[in-house]
Design a protein that fits this description.
single chain; alpha/beta; ligase; PPS/PS; PPS/PS_sf; Phosphopantothenate/pantothenate synthetase family protein
Length: 103
Amino acid sequence: GAADTVVVPLEDGDRAEALAAAGKTEIVIDLNPGSRGPRTAAIPIIDNVIRAVPNVTAHARDLAGASSSELRRVVDEFDADEALTAAEAAIREGSFDGDGDVA
């Protein structure tokens, strides 16, 4: 069957744009917040894919027991543009810590 949400790892702006045009929800993992993929994504993750996948898995486990209303709040409060702006600022300031988080 067709997927509603697609993970696009490793800097693939063409694929990200095509999936967005097809109405898919995209989770894009990229090192550059200015790349086409993250700018197109519903959920941009600015990090190394080796760190990002385990971090996403850990967050999913943390949310496993959350109620539907809690999950809806998380989704509704997420702002992709704000995430990209914060990632770019952290890169410019050198404020990423060793775990890929903003220090």
